Amino acid sequence: MEAKGRILVVDDEMLVRQGIIHLLNWESEGFQIVGEAANGKEALDLVHLHRPHIILTDIVMPVMDGTELAKVVKAMYPDIEIVVLSSFGEFEYVRSTFQSGVADYMLKPKLDADSLLAVLHKTAQRIPELRGMELAGESKHSLDYILDKLISGYSIPYDRQELTSALPYSDFALLIGDAQQLGSATLQRSEEWAEAVIGAGVQQMQSPMTVRLLSHQDGQIRFLLNLDPEAKADAARLVRQLAEAGASSGRSLFFALSRFFTDIEAMHEVYANEIMQIVNHRFFLSNRQYLILDELKEQGESVSFDMEAFNAGLNRQEYPQAFERLRSYVQSMPGRMDMDMFALKSSLGHSLFNIIVSLLHFHYEAASLDESKYEYFRSIHEADHITDVIALVEKFLNEAMECVTGKKAGSPAFQKILQYIDEHLSEPLTLTEVAKLFHFNASYLSNYFAVHNKEGFNEYLNRLRIDKACELLRDNPALSIAEIGSKVGYSDHSYFTKVFRKLKGISPSLYRKNQ
Question: CB of 143 within 8 A of CB of 151?
Fold first, then answer.
């Protein structure tokens, strides 16, 4: 049997790797893609496993770059040839790799099938096992090649009769094992383990079933099940067996079984638009090791968060009610299949930020909470499960409540004064009138403002009015400058302009123009 050149593709961009993998019918050209990796460290694991003849590698990658990879591989396996893929601006990196024994290089922007083949065949001549290998010419596509193209969404001609003879039953389903946290070598061993468990399970079934291992992608082990309709219950049982065996052996694997379909060409749609959504919803199903799409129950009425009511509560300093509104919303998330993980995390980040802004605005002692906000945002963004997010939000709300009711709280009377000023900006406000309204001595209130607010009454009032004016200038182009000045409490247009220029450095009209 003619030797095939084993190729390992290494690039930190998944789309680049997939573009290379699907660029050619590798088998018909005498080559075989034996693996893909996102950095040099992952690549080394696969080098030990597969001993490729040729490595196609990017230069600039995280963890271990192409230069370091070339040095290590050439030191351990001098017979492996390396072809570097680079961008225009990376020639200095490329030149350094040649000192490590790199065979050739190609520019990514000029990467095409003919050029890549020419470089690979030239490189193959340096390998004794492959020396003399020629273009194989047209050959029939293998079943693995056809299935790999179909699941990736590529259109490819094939003999339906031959496909039917290999996959003789009427129904299909996709079985995905998600192992994104595993390294390349561990993923390979998990794939072999899953294949063995499935093989043993199929032998025990009453109804016939054919299982094809598909190429793994981006940390996923993928199988195509071909079965008769009466074997659907066996397929579901097989998934449960896999999950139980994985849990008992300590494997971090999550399995998902797609709906059943009858047209093999629907495989990409089922994979990309259905089963990937299931895998992504692991976030909301913390304690589940598997999901079967046909067994998912219809969700109840969708849950939404009234951000407007939440913010209104913050503005009125109704913190217990606002916090409880957010807490109840987050605690309703486990088990939801109609929510988007990224949208939820983003919404929660905004809500926590708004709480901090409100506390600082009303002069509660929330500086430490403000300093830790980015750690909260990062932890929520990186959380794997909804239970982790619930704990983070609860911790944040407890700290925020301490600012309101504990030792960190400001004077309740002073908070009421600040709230009154915020709500009556458009009215003529004076220190004397506000002090009288709240039963304060005017000089005492003036001093209190300076001590606790770090700015005097008039400075505070002008800053709030000008901030509100900026908002109106941005969002209400139909309002004139004079109208906006009046709406924020300045009956004298020239005085409004003077104060605006003093605080913002430019006139109101120029500010609007810049916006």
Answer: no
By the 10 Å C-beta count (0-12 exposed, 13-18 middle, 19+ buried), 270 is classed as: buried
Residue type, 221: I
- The answer to whether 7 touches 27, Cβ cutoff 8 Å, is no
Q: In what order do the strands lie in the sheet with 5-10?
A: 31-37, 5-10, 54-58, 81-86, 104-107
CA 349 distance to own-chain centroid:
15
Q: Write the DSSP assignment of 221-238 as a string of letters.
A: EEEEEEE-GGGHHHHHHH
In residues, how long is the chain?
A: 515
pLDDT in tens, 195-242: 888 888 888 887 889 999 887 666 678 899 999 988 888 898 898 888
Q: Which residue, 311, 339, 336, is CA-closest to 325?
A: 311
Token duo for residue 446 = 């003036």
Task: Give the gyration radius of the chain's Cα atoms.
Answer: 32
**Alpha-carbon span 360 to 367, nearest angstrom:** 8
Residue 79: which residues within 8 A CB-CB, separation 6 or more?
A: 127
Phi, then psi, of 373 in degrees rounded to 5: -60, -40
Q: Burial level of 427, CB count in 10 A (0-12/13-18/19+)?
A: exposed
| Predicted structure pTM score | 0.49
Could you give the 3-state DSSP secondary structure of residue 506? coil
Q: So what's the pLDDT on residue 492?
A: 87
> CA 385, 322, 367, 353 torsion: positive or negative?
positive
The mean pLDDT value for 300-318 works out to 82
